[in-house]
Design brief:
single chain; alpha+beta; OB fold (Dihydrolipoamide Acetyltransferase, E2P); 3 helices; 8 strands
Length: 192
């Protein structure tokens, strides 16, 4: 009886140990654009096993094809992948082209938001691009690039200050503001 109870508990508890692919919060393209230090269309030139402090098990070398944000003089970048973070599935394959959103990791880069910060490009189509509601669809690279640029412009543009409203004078009534193009009337002066 004791063996049966133990076996039932163990078998019943196994699903709790399996990883769910939905256990990471997915950043929107706008958030990815704001937080990424380097955004580019890349081609993976090399992929090798690595052990980066036990946190990543893949080191990727890639050639930037089109840099959207970041240092456009780079001819090669190194990306850490296969993160040890639970549910992460960030991985790169040699010869693949991708649109990536990268964050610094020491002197290297890592994929921002893990697998949700990399988008496979086939031909000139970005696969599984996400809209603002995080619904996926395939979209031409040129359209995706324009969308990312718009997010970057909005992120780098300071908000406009509100127009100050006139304050009433100490006596009570506010001074009326004349319409544009009309000269204000001088207030009457009292004789000395």
């Amino acid at each position: 009886m004791r063996i049966l109870i133990t076996a039932t508990l163990l078998l019943g508890g196994l699903p709790a140990f399996s990883q769910s692919h939905d256990c990471l919060r997915i950043m929107s393209p706008e958030e990815l654009s704001r937080k990424a230090a380097f955004i580019a269309r890349i081609k993976v030139t090399r992929s090798e096993k690595a052990n980066y402090y036990g946190m990543y098990s893949q080191l990727v070398t890639a050639a930037p094809i089109d840099v959207v944000e970041g240092d456009d003089r780079l001819t090669q970048i190194n990306i850490l992948a296969r993160s040890a973070v639970q549910c992460a599935e960030d991985e790169y394959t040699t010869k693949e082209e991708m649109l990536v959103f990268l964050a610094p990791e020491g002197t290297l880069y890592r994929t921002l938001d893990f697998q949700y910060g990399q988008f496979l490009i086939v031909g000139d189509t970005v696969k599984n691009w996400r809209d603002k509601a995080n619904n996926t669809s395939d979209k031409p690279y040129a359209e995706v690039r324009k969308e990312v640029e718009a997010y970057l412009i909005a992120a780098h543009t300071p908000p406009t200050a509100p127009t100050p409203q006139p304050t009433p004078p100490a006596g009570g009534q506010p001074t009326p503001t004349p319409p544009p193009g009309v000269k204000p009337k001088k207030p009457p002066t009292s004789p000395p």
